[in-house]
What we know:
- A four-stranded antiparallel β-sheet has the order 1-2-3-4, with helices on one face. Strands 5-6-7 form a three-stranded antiparallel β-sheet.
- It is an alpha+beta fold.
- The chain has helices spanning 7-13, 65-80, 85-100, 106-116, 124-137, 139-142, 152-163, 167-186, 209-212, 226-234, 239-250, 254-258, 291-300, 324-336, 359-371, 376-382, 389-394, 400-414, 428-438, and strands at residues 22-25, 30-34, 40-48, 51-59, 265-266, 271-274, 285-288.
- Helices cover 47% and strands 8% of the residues.
- Mean pLDDT is 84; it is low at 389-394 and 421-440.
- A hairpin with a 5-residue loop joins strand 2 and strand 3.
- It has three domains: 7-95, Integrase, DNA-binding domain (Double Stranded RNA Binding Domain), CATH 3.30.160; 101-212, Tyrosine recombinase, N-terminal domain (DNA polymerase, domain 1), CATH 1.10.150; 223-438, Orthogonal Bundle (hpI Integrase, Chain A), CATH 1.10.443.
Amino acid sequence: MAGKLTELTVKALMAKGRHTPGRHTDEKGLHLHIRADGNAAWVLRYRQHGRQRDLNLLPYADKTLKVARDAADAARVTIKAGKDPIRERQQQARAALEAASADRTFRAALESTLEAKAGAWKNEKHRWQWRATLETHALPKIGELPVSEVTTDDVMAVLRPIWTRTPETASRLRGRIETVLDHAKVRGWRSGENPARWRGHLREMLADPSKIAPVQRQPALPWVLMPAFMAALRARKGMAAVALQFTILTAARTGEVRGATWGEIDTEARVWTIQAARMKAGEMHRVPLSHAAMTVLAALRPEQSRPGDLIFPGARAATKPLSDMALAMLVRGMATDGLEQDAPPRWRDLTGRVVVPHGFRSAFRDWAGETRHEGREVAERALAHAVGGVEGAYARSDLLEKRRPLMQAWGEWCERAPGGAAVVPLDTSTAKQAVVGGRA
């Protein structure tokens, strides 16, 4: 059959570092679905009762084309018998869960929790991280214990070895153990207080994670130095330099910029719309584009472009985005290239650390807070920060029109001639050193 896959074509499509994203058809609905990150799965597309469905047969991993075809044939037998293979799989999973739950172990409680929360994950990666943390640290020690018998000593045996070494991971682990035990209690598998509870319990036995390892903020350039940095950046050649300019001018995250396509840009309305699937908060975000940002795009736009074409493709292939490392190395190079070994970096925060791409969002936020009148809510919306609590429940507008003058002013500040800054930070001695070290 023309167009069928072969073992050789599959290996070529999955070549490490050169994989080809998309759906690659074999026969009778079977295809290899390769994601942009290189993960892939064999999928069977079928129609039943007038409805089209996709059945994930098995991950690609080391599974050959023959194994995938055999699995597809088995699924087609189920379909021909009038049964839905997806529903059959779900029923089998529930049966296996009930069988495993007979002993009501902590492991069984974890599986039950994951099934109950199936629709609550932000994405598959979050689900994987949730499970992986418990499989790595908790299951080896308490996985086979009856969940009704898990005690404070058992929880401490899991947490204590990593509490001071990796406090952030340990804190998440504690919370996930607490969730599993709460779920088990609701199911009637255990009773009494939760031994993983923090307040009024483990808090009295373990150090506060935030005091073990205070949160390290990303190194950010003082906002008064942004005109000088942007002048130096414009002198740099290459796609990474242009992408970083756009990142700074839009106050966006680097991942949002690297994945941007021409179809997301409304040139007439001067708006960049990022769909929810690409946003950290899981909500669509609109960015009003300043004159400076539009100028960056105008210099890049080809005569003919398709909506799905990347604005900032990587050097090796137009279908692959620029790597995050390219932006990080660009900033590090700008800070240290040509300097003596012991010389301080040109572009650094007030503590002397070399700035990083994400830190420019902090520079924008400081600039907005110190020089603009739009207020906190508008600045936070510009950064696509989620608004929580009651305020978030009632705040439906994204304040696009209020953000237009804010982003235009930011663009004008970034395009300002170096040395024209009229405002200096309160710590003048440190700032003076940063200015001297930061001149282009």
